Structures are given as structure tokens and as C-alpha cells.
Amino acid sequence: MQKTTSYFLVILKFISVFVYSQAPKKKLHTQFCNEKINVDGKLTEAIWKNAEIATDFLMINPDNGKPELKTRKTEVKVVYDNDAIYIGATMFDNEPSKIRKELTLRDNDASADMFGVFINGYNDGQQEARFAVSAAGVQIDGMYTSTSEQDLSWNAIWDSHVEITNYGWVAELKIPYAALRFSSDKKQTWGLNFYRDINRDRQQFTWNLIDNKITNESIQAGLLEGIENIDTPTRLFLIPYSSFYLNSNQQQTKGELKGGLDIKYGINDAFTLDAIMIPDFGQTAFDNVVLNLGPFEQQFAENRPFFTEGTDLFNKGNIFYSRRIGGSPSTYAYLDANEEFIKNPSTINLLNALKISGRTKSGLGVGVLNAVTDNTYAEIKNTVNGDRRKELVEPLANYNVFVLDQRFRKNSSVTFINTNVTRNGDYRDANVSALVFDLNTKKNSFNLTGNVKYSFINEFGTFENRDGHEMDLSFSKTSGKFRFNLGSEYYSEEFDPNDLGINFQTHYHNFFANQSYRILNPTKRFNSFSIGLNEYIEFDNRTNRLQNANFSLDINTVNKKNDYYGFGLNFRPLKISDFYEPRSENEMKYVTQPEFINPWFYISTNYNRKFAIDINPAFAIINEKERYNINFSVTPRYRFSDKFSLSYSFAYNYQNNNVGWAAFDTNSNTIFTRRNRTTFNNSIQGKYSVNNLMNFNLSVRHYWSYALTNKFLTLQEDGNLLENTNYTSNQDRYYNSWNLDLSYSWWFAPGSQISVLYRNSSTYYPDGDFSQDYGQNFKNLFRPESLNNVLSISIRYFIDYNHAKRWFSN
User: Within 10 A of 489 (CB to CB), how many other CB atoms are there?
Assistant: First the structure.
């Protein structure tokens, strides 16, 4: 308790010391528009002629602070009405034929010139809604926060159009108020910045300079003034959808029709409700599953739009992992004698979910996310008498996240976040809370961050309840050529956020530091150059044994031709005690892990060229006889035209005499295996864009990994391994998988989409003798009994309540 009290006193002290002062900012005054504006990229309406102009852009990269050339100047105007703000931008270019305009899917990077606008409705220097359009007309939008930087998973409904001219190009944007968050004040002052990317020269500019000596970008925005007395419309949007799935394998062909509704409602100008009723995530991207031989679960990216869009507030404190919702059941079904599974579900059915988020005028952010999952049963059959039974593996459950995030002094915040999982009946419940702070000095030169977390687990059945805590604190220099960071973390043995979060290690404390040097402007040889040193030391809380000791040197450069080069060295100079690999009860046993050294190198050539390539070789030498790792990856890519491009990626990994846990024998000994592991990962990404609203996309992956045992070892009490010649169980491991997604997408109206997906997938496990022949294992994936095929068609239609009212009134 004394430690906790002292920790909070430190927090309060720094809150009182860390303050902010704002540098001079450019200002743009806008005016109200009474005429209808047609978003056509022509800027012919009368209002544009008299609108104030934002110009004199300054370079961000590579030559930070350099003024734009007069022959490539940028002029931007902003007007508004009661529905939206309108941005008209003219990008002059003395060589308009060289303007790059590659077509891609929405939110995808491209070899294309770009114009963007960054809007902060609260002018608090911490969060911006960013909207950009390429010279090909492709939209990109995202949310930038000072802590998590840019999140492109956020999508809004807005309109844009571009025109290529004989003097450059023009972009016209309409940003509805529904896509923004701002106070209810009659007179508004917003944070504002404009962005331009001249892609052929890899040059980026902003209206108000983003100084690369300062980490936080949003605090460096200019100001938009003049928006007054806007009468914003009701923000109610309905997105009904219907999907049809045709599933086919050797056993059966089955069709399934689904339908549902997404709702977005603006409670006021600051707060929004998002809800999904009868969710359908059948067309989300497949997971890149691997052969996981380690002690921790594989972590997957979130691909479901509801859980990626606008969730930055819920990610504070890093205790929310959305894949838990609708993930694996929390318990297992057990088979009696002569029983087998008819159905043993690996996922839980999500019934519905909603989130409410927004921010008050005083800077208090409030977020609530809630989801409900259904009862999930395993189905079991008696192979002797044919009897069938069901066993509940996951009851009806409620998942909830609650956040309060107070911003102050334009560059700092204190956050409280709570996650809760409540399962129906006598099943495990969980509650985790965190207090997080992020404090910066006046000139954003130094930063102090930290958090305190507490978890309480109400265990399943008669298991004993548990509680635990985690604390961390770090101090950083965040500006200038030389920067550093140092800090420490403490995890108690019983800390467990994993019902709605993800955490791999507990019962340890660590100390870490890193130092870096970078150039802020180009030199004769480099557009950018940075060098970093990283140090990390970790100890087990219970024994004070050294649990980790890693050090690294990293050098990253961009040359004058915009090719990226990097190299470095990772090494561990000391033996460590690994308490996780043995999988012992309460993680009391440990295995000694040897020293290693790991040099690496990469090259990534300029993507503006039609042909570009990424190459990344690495080699690790472990301090044991004939133990080493080889890693190599190469990704060539070719852009056939602005519409069509392909990339191929090959990754190879070989581990000679790798050592890892295998099993427990009949005498409860911990058995390890010394094994050779080989992994091949081949993938193809392709796209063909008909226009900026219609795309075909291809994603293919073949993953083949196997680990073959050389000998068995028994773990000793002192952490060493002794050869075991008595254990004979087969512990070879294999994983062979194939995934192909071919999709068509058409945004036929703002927010409305038709998508068609063909998915072909297979997983193969050898029944008899294992073959290392790559070709044979690849062929096995295409045996009729292995393949699964899905053809799905989904239609989503965006309905604006205000437009719907006009339909009915007419």
C-alpha cells in the first residue's frame, strides 16, 4: 500500500510541473456559404472567389522547414454551411504530366500525389480527424492521436473529387459535421492543417509547419476561425446489409442468407453511438496462422470494422484486446469413454455490440463499449450406443469497456479505463482497471508516462479468486537530434487482464533505456539517418533471477534516391532463466537459455519505381553446439500501370538444434526436445482498380512449417537439460495451410458498397509418414477432402436520416 501511495504522489507532483505553451500559429478565416456547392473539383461557385487563401506551405520531409517552390505552390480555401465544411485546394505543378496517380483501394498507400486536411474540432492539440484524397481520386481517412499516432482503420462518410489541369491538379472535399467532433459553442475555433505530398520527389508539405524536432504532430496545427451559429442536422445513419454465403467442401454444399443493421447516432455534436445488430464479419481478412511452438498464444490483428473504427479511446492503457469478443470459449468439453466430438466450437457467436464515445468542451473524453455473446455448446456423440449430448463451453457473456480520458493544457492527459467480463452462472468473471497518465513539458521536449493497473478474477467454480497489479513509469526526451527514454515496469504474479486483454508474462520487473541520434535535415548523402541503442534487463520477482537481458544497435537511412537501408545487431551477453517455456504449474520451474548474437540487414528500394524490392537477411548464433537460426525474406513488387500491380513475398526461416518444451512424461518430468525447424511462407498480393471506386484484389498465402526431433531432454531443477533416451513419443510437429481470397468491391454510393468474395482454404496434416518434400505437401492441400470453398456476396446501403426524411416528404 505504501508503494502505491508513493507512486500516486509522484504522479501528482509531475502533473503540477508539466505545463504547455503554444507556438505562433497560422490562422485561416472561413465564411458561411448560402449557395449549393457541387463537389466536382472545379471550384466555380462564387463563394470560392472571395474565400481567404491558405498558402506558403513548408516542407516536412526531407528538408524540414524549407518553403515550397513558387512553381509548385499550394492554395487552399475553406467555406461552410449548416451541413458540412468544404475545402478547395489547388496544387500548382510546373510538370503536370509527372503527377503520380496510381489507383488503389481506399486507405491504401499508392504511388500518387496527395492532398489532405487535418481537423481538430476541440483545438486541444491531441486528436485530429484526417481526410486525404490522391490525384487519382482515392480517399484516405484516419484518426491521429498524440499517443497512438495515425489509425487508418477509422472510416467516415465524406465526398471528394479531383481534376487534373494543365497547371497542376485541384481537389475539392466536403466533410459533413457528422464525421467530426466539436463543442456546442456558437463560435468555433478549430485546429487545422493542410498536407500535400509530391510523390515523385518524396516531398511532403504542410501549411503550418510540422517540426520534426517535436514528436507530437497535432499540437503543431494552425487555426480555423469564423464558423459561427451552425445548425447541425440530426446525425442518424442506418446501414442495413444483406449477405449470402455458399459454403462448399467434399461433404456438402450449403447456402446461408444473413441480414443485419448497423446504426450510427449522434447523441450531440460531441458524442456518437455506434451499434451493430446481428453482426456479420464473414468477409473479413483471414488470419495468418502459424505453427506456434512457444508458451504463449498467437496474437491476431483485428479485422472486424466495428472493433477497429474509432477505438483509440478504448486502447488507452493497453488492457483491451478486441479479439477476445467472439474468440475462443473460456472452458473445454471433456470426453468420456467411447465418445467423440460432433462439434467442438473454436469461436463464440457475437449477438450484438455498441459503443458510445465523445468528448466534452472541457476535454473529458468518455467511452463505453459493450458486447454480448451467446451460449456456446460442444456436441458429443457416444460411438457405442449413438447417444448425443451437449456441453456448455461458454455461457451467455457480457463484455464491457469504460473510459474517462481528461485532456489538459493541450498536450497532456490522465485516463481511467475499466474492462469487465461477466459470464452467466458459475463461470469465471473478470475486472481490470488502469490509471494512465501522459505528461509533456512546455515545449514538448520531455515526456513522462506511466500507469497503474489492477485485476480481479472471480474464478470458475471452486477455484480460488485472484487479484494482481502492474505499474510502469518512463521518462523521455522527445525532441531534437538526440533523444532518450528510460523506465521500469513491475508485474505481480497474479496480474491477469486476459479475459478482455492480452498479456503474456507476469511475476517480473524490468529496467529499460534507449538512446537515439538523427539528422533533422538532408545531407549530401542522406535524406534521413538515425542510429539507436536499446538496453533491456528483466528479473523474476520471486527469485530475482535474471529473466532477460537484450541489447541492440539499429541504424536506418534513406539515401538521395529515396532507397531505404538499415542494419543492426541484437545480442544477449548473459545466460537467462526462462520461467515460461517449461509450462510448469504456477511457472515455478525455469530453463536456462544461452547467450546469442543476431546481426541483420535490410534494403527497401524506392516504391515510386515500377519495380521495387525489399530484402531482409538475418542470422543468429546461439551459444550452444551447432545451434543457429537463419532468416531471409524478399519481396519484389511490380506496378504494371496505375491500375494493376503485383507483389510476391517469400520468407524462409531455419532453426538448427532449436530447444523447446515437448511434453510431460508419466512421472511428471518436463520433457524438452532438441529439434530442427523449417518454415516457408509464400504470399502474393495483387490489385486491379477499374477506377477509384471499383477494385479487384487478390491475396494468396501458403504457409509450411515443420519441426523434427533430434533428441529428447529432461529439465533439471537447476534449469539445465539432461539427455533422455527413454522417452520415445513422437513430438514432431507440422502445419501446412493455404488461403486464397479473390474479391471485388464497388462503392456505388457514399458509404454504400457491394462486395463479392471467393475464398479457397485448406489445412493439411499428414496421416502417415512425414515427407519433407515441399511440392508433395503443397499438392496435398488441394486434395478434395482438404479444400473448403466460400462464395459470398454482401450489399451494404448507407441511409442518412435527413435524406430519408426528404424522400418521404416528397
Answer: 17
Q: Could you give phi then psi for residue 179, rounded to 5 degrees?
A: -90, 0
**Distance of alpha carbon 392 from alpha carbon 330, whole angstroms:** 10
pLDDT at 160: 96
Q: What cell was used for 685?
A: 498480393
Cell (9 digits) for 427: 463461470
Q: Specify the residue for cell string 509533456.
A: 440
The secondary structure element, H or E, covering residue 804 is: helix 801-809
| Mean pLDDT by groups of 10 residues along the chain of 810 residues | 41 40 78 94 94 96 94 97 95 96 89 96 88 96 79 86 96 93 88 96 95 86 94 87 93 91 87 89 89 94 85 90 93 89 91 92 91 95 91 95 92 95 93 96 92 94 88 96 97 96 96 96 94 98 97 97 96 97 95 98 96 98 96 97 97 97 94 97 97 96 96 96 94 94 94 95 80 89 91 94 73
Distances (CA, A) of 553 to 278, 538, 563, 614: 50, 19, 21, 21
Say what the pTM is.
Answer: 0.89
Beta bridge partners, 780, equal none
Q: Which helix (H) or strand (E) holds 4?
A: helix 2-17
Over its C-alpha atoms, the chain yields an Rg (Å, rounded) of 28
CA dist., res. 196 & res. 679, Å (int):
42
Residue 358 dihedral angles phi and psi, to the nearest 5°: 170, -175
Question: What pLDDT, on the 0 to 100 scale, is given for residue 619?
Answer: 97
pLDDT confidence of residue 371:
96
Q: Is 592 left (phi over 0), alpha (psi -120 to 50) or beta?
A: beta
| H-helix segments, 746-799 | 774-780
Residues 6+ apart with CB under 8 A from 130: 116, 117, 118, 119, 140, 141, 142, 143, 144, 150, 195
For residue 441, the one-letter residue type is T
C-alpha 618, offset from chain centre: 25
Distance (Å, rounded) from C-alpha 417 to C-alpha 319?
Answer: 8
| pLDDT score for 148 | 64
Q: Which three cell numbers stand for residue 324?
A: 477476445
CB distance 476 to 461 below 8 Å: no
| Percent helix, strand and coil across the chain, each to the nearest 5 | 10, 55, 40
Q: How far apart, in Å, do the first and last CA atoms of the chain sit? A: 68
Q: Report d(CA 206, CA 220) in Å as an integer.
A: 10
Cell of 257: 442468407
Q: 230, 104 in Cβ contact below 8 A?
A: no
Question: Which cell is 722 given?
Answer: 539432461
3-state secondary structure 478-506: CECCEEEEEEEEEECCCCCCCCCCCCCCC
Say how far apart CA 611 and CA 51 lie, in whole Å: 43
DSSP 382-427: ETTT--EEEEEEE--EEEEEEEEEEEETTTEEEEEEEEEEEESSSS
CA 82 from centre of chain? 35
* Three-class DSSP category at 46: helix
What's at 554, amino acid-wise? D
Residue 705 contacts by C-beta under 8 Å, 6 or more apart in sequence? Answer: 290, 291, 677, 678, 679, 680, 734, 735, 736
Cα–Cα distance for residue pair 427/406, rounded to 1 Å: 35
10 Å CB burial of residue 626 (0-12, 13-18, 19+) is exposed
Q: Using the structure block, give the residue that is written with the C-alpha cell 533428441.
A: 711
Beta bridge partners of 778: none
